[in-house]
Large ribosomal subunit protein bL32 (Lacipirellula limnantheis), 59 residues
Amino acid sequence: MAVPKRKHSNSRTGKRRSHHGLKPKELQSCPKCATPQPSHVICPNCGHYMGRTMVETEE
């Protein structure tokens, strides 16, 4: 079985993990009510998606 001969340094480990950080969610504004929301999701405020009403909301 293969075993490492030397320990990897902290900087080398950190370089490898540099792309593991969390990125913030990309939000877009709803074209009808301008509420920020993720793309390809029905708007939780007005219930619109792709220019159509998908969910009836009480206003």
User: Anything to note?
Assistant: The first helix runs from residue 10 to 16. The radius of gyration is 23 Å. The mean pLDDT is 90.
